[in-house]
Amino acid sequence: MQLEESVARYLSQLDTADRQEPSETLATKTTRLKEKLAKLGEEMRCLEGFEARMLAAPDQQISLTDPDSHSMATSGRGSGVVGYNVQVAVDTEHHLIVTHEVTNVGSDRSQLARVAKQTKAALQADRLEAVADRGYFSGEEILACDQAGITVTLPKPITSGIKAKGRYGKQDFVYLPEEDVYRCPAGERLKYYYTNVENGLALRRYWTNACRSCALKSRCTTGVQRRITRWEHEHVLEAVQRGLDENPQAMRRRRETVEHPFGTIKARMGATHFLMKTLPRVAAEMALHVLAYNLTRVINIIGPGRLIAAIQT
Fold first, then answer.
1. 174 bridge partner residues
2. Domain contains 276
3. Please, which of 68, 133, 289, 313 could form a disulfide with 279 given CB 3.0 to 4.6 Å?
4. Which residues does residue 196 pair with via DSSP β-bridges, in sequence order?
5. Is residue 286 assigned to a domain?
C-alpha cells in the first residue's frame, strides 16, 4: 500500500513538473523521479515474489532472516514476535527443569500432552500431576493426558461473549449424569436429542421446548430455544474443573514454579535472547541454557562439593 502511494505521488510530481518547471530544470527532475519509480518497481516485484512464497508455505508465513522461525503470539493484544516457542516442565519442589522442547508452533494448545508425557517418562513415574495455564486448554490434549495417567489442572478460557451480554453461560447449566440432562437456571431439564461430528469431535445436543414460555428467556437466549452442546468426553473436562475448584492456589503455584526458570534464563540471555538461527541450532542453544540453569540450581540446593562427588561417582 505504501509503495503504491509512493508511485502515485511520483507520477503526480512528474505531471506537475511537465506543466510548471522551467525547461532547464525539467530534465533533471524528471530523471530523478523516473529513477525513484524504477526502484519502487523493483521493490514491488520483489514483494510479489515474497507474497508468492508466503502463500505457497503451509502456514502462509515466511521469515527472511531465519526460515524456521514463525510468528508467535504474545500477551499484548494484537501483538506478536517472530521467533520460537519454548516448552518447559518444572518440578514444584526444587524448580529444576525436567524436560524442555523448542518448537516453531506459535500456539501452546497442541503442546500439553506431548510435554506431559515426556515429563512422566523422564521421571519414570506411574502417574503425574501437571498444572498449566489457560493457553494449553484443549479437550483433545486433556483427554490424551488422562488416558496416559496424567492428571492436569488448568483453567478453561472464556471464549464466548454471552456473559458480557448479561445472559447465562454454559457454566450456569448443571449436567445431571444419572438422567443425561442439563438443568437450566429456571429449573427445566434440557434432554439429549442427537449427536453430530464437528472437526472430528462427537458433540451431543440438548434443549427443551419450555424456553418458549420461560420468564428467564431474555436472559438466556435470543433464539427460539437455548441449546447446550456436550462433548462425548466432557466428563474429563469437568474433572479438571473440579480439581481447580478444590485447589484454587494451583495457578499461583504454577506461576511461582515455571516462571522462575524462564525469568532466570531470559536474564542470562540478555535482550537478544537466541543468538542462533534455524530450529536445530536454536534447540542446541536452549539445551545449553537449560543445562547451565539446572547445574546452578543443583549447586544452590546441595552445594558444589556434593555435586562434584555425585558426578565423579
1. 183
2. no
3. 68
4. 203
5. no
**Whole-number average pLDDT of the chain:** 87
pLDDT of 91 > 80? The answer is yes
Residues in a beta bridge with 90: 97
In a domain, 39, yes or no: yes
Are 84 and 102 spatial neighbours (Cβ–Cβ below 8 Å)?
yes
Enumerate residues 6+ apart whose C-beta is below 8 A from 242.
none
Using CA atoms, how far apart are residues 237 and 144, in angstroms rounded to an integer?
12
Q: What is the domain extent for residue 38?
A: 2-56
Distance CA 81, CA 258 (A): 21
Q: What's 208-247 look like in SS3?
A: CHHHHHCCCHHHCCCCCCCEEEEECCHHHHHHHHHHHHHC
CB atoms < 10 A from the CB of 188, how many?
18
Residue 193 forms part of a structural domain:
yes
pLDDT at 279: 95
How many CB atoms sit inside 10 A of residue 235's CB?
A: 13
Question: Is 26 or 147 the better-scoring residue by pLDDT?
Answer: 147
Confidence label for 31 from pLDDT (cuts 50, 70 and 90): confident
String of DSSP letters for 252-293? HHHHHHHHHHHHHHHHHH-TT-----SHHHHHHHHHHHHHHH
pTM (2 decimals)? 0.78
Q: Tell me the three cell numbers of residue 139.
A: 479437550
**How many domains is the chain partitioned into structurally?**
2
Residue 265 pLDDT > 90, yes or no? Answer: yes
**Chosen domain end from 14, 40, 56:** 56
Q: Closest by alpha carbon to 252, among 92, 76, 89, 97?
A: 92
Distance of CA 42 to the CA centre of its chain: 37
Give residue 107's pLDDT band: very low, low, confident or very high (50, 70, 90): confident
Judging by beta carbons within 10 Å of its beta carbon (0-12, 13-18, 19+), is residue 304 exposed, middle or buried? exposed
